[in-house]
Every structure is written in C-alpha cells, then in structure tokens.
User: What shape does this take?
Amino acid sequence: MNLKGRDFLTLKDFTKEEIVYLLDLAADVKEKKKNGIPVDHYKGKNVALIFEKDSTRTRCAFEVAAHDMGMGTTYLGPTGSQMGKKESIEDTARVLGRMYDGIEYRGFGQEIVEELAKYADVPVWNGLTNEYHPTQMLADMLTIREQFGKLEGLKLVYMGDARYNMGNSLMVACSKLGMNFVACTTEKYFPDEELVQTCRGYAKESGATITLTEDAEEGTKDADIIYTDVWVSMGEPDEVWEERIRELSPYKVTKEIMANAKKDAIFLHCLPAFHDLKTKIGKEMGQRFGIEDMEVTDEVFESEQSKVFDEAENRMHTIKAVMMATLGEAGK
Assistant: This one.
C-alpha cells in the first residue's frame, strides 16, 4: 500500500483497504511504543501545525507523534500566522511547502484545507474542519476494533447534532468499513441529504446500512457503540446553548440508553465532554438551566463501558500512522 505524497483531508478520498491499512499501521506503531521500540527515522523532517481553532488532543497528538518520529514541529496558533489576513491561503501554502515536509490544518471550512493541499506540494492533513474530522475517525475505529476485534457488522449510533464534522465523518467511516450507522436525533439535526446519499453508495459496496431516526429507544436498541459529542461546536455563539439543550436533551446518553444497547456496548466521545459542572461553560450552563450535565451523564462517562480515554490516546498512534504513510518510510 503506497500512500506517499497523499493528502489526508476526508475519508471520502480513501478506500476501505487504505483505511484498514492505516489502522493496521497505527496498531503496529502503538505496540512498538508500548514496548519501547523507537520509530524515529524521520530526523531532518519538519511539519507545520496550523491551528485556527484551539485544541488539546489534536495538537498534543501531532506534536508527540512528530517528536517520537524524530521530526521538528512549528505550532502556528490562531494569531501565529498571516494566512487569510495579510497573505492568501495559496501563498501561505506555497511558502510553507518550501520549508516543511507536511502541513496540518485545524480550523473552519473544508475549502481552506483543500486549498492548502492544492498549492502546498507536500502532504496536508486535516486536523478538523467544520465538515470533517478524519484523524478522529481513525482513532475511533482503532478503539472499536481493539474492543470488538472487528469492525464489519457493528452498529454505531451517533446521538445529538449530526450535521457537522463528527456526524458527517462517522457516517463516512462506517459506510466505508461495513458498519451500520444510525443518526439518532431530531430531523433538524440529521446530516446533509447529499452526503447521506453519497454514503448510501459506499454502504451498498461494503454491506453497511445507514439509518436516520428520531426514536432514541429504537435507534439505540442492540447498538454496539453509542457515540456523542458536545452540542455546541467551536465558533458558534453562546445564544444557541438554550436551543440545543432544549431540543437535544431527549438524546442525552444515559444509563437507560446504554442499557438499551447490547450488554457489551461501549461509549465513545471525541472530547471535551460536558458530563459534569467542572468546566467554566458547564458551570455556567448549570447555573442558567439547572442541569448537572449535557450530552452525557457523569455516570455513563465514568463507567466501565466508557472508552473515551483509550480513544483519546489513539489519536496519537493513528496520527503517527497518517504521517508515516503519507511522508513515506524515508530514512528507514
């Protein structure tokens, strides 16, 4: 499998076999790291990390992965570059492409990371856009495979706001890999119909199914994986909190939801999660609306079924696999 020079912008661009190859590579480098076997033959290479949206897991995963592999990193935060302000995306891409071996972008529209990729002449990796979050998908799929020993035939239910990067990306990943995807939410929060039809095409090839339902009990019945995310995305105004809490509360992940799934079902969340009042926003929402949690209860989040920290760790291993595959095995 040769992915050298490829961009990693959305899993729509990759075949089932290519995605499985990346998961296998991630599992291999994870095992090596656990056993103290270095994979550091990328000395002399450097990557630029562009973050127009702040991050914990994505930034740390890219930086630790790069450093483990012997690479240098330059972090460009929300005020760290002139991209889109004094310098066009096209020009920024051509400058960074002359200095770096790869570029990560985390920010807003998918068109931005695609334009970077068009002009950079080095691999560009999507660390999150409004529409897609492909590095998170690899971490999720690796975590699921570690728990169940397989992916095909499993039922994954996404609860909450399925219109943006997480709902979109999970639907793409599941339909490519032969998993049964369910978006469980009100119709207002269903994924874009055009993308649904695209994924139905993938599902036809892989043997997957795609279901959109407003019925939380029926949607989560016999699920293998229950997945949720925060109800308000980065960059959205505070005014939408009241609306989301009112409209999405029926789709909160509770012990009753987990009990309706299979006995060995797991809970996943890409984090950060509002499962208690120990955050600034969580405390504020608790005071305003008299709630103790939002998209998931603390009881579920802290349960044995919750694999969210395995999932978070796997961000690093899967990102390492993406960089290795697209940069090639130079210097090995």
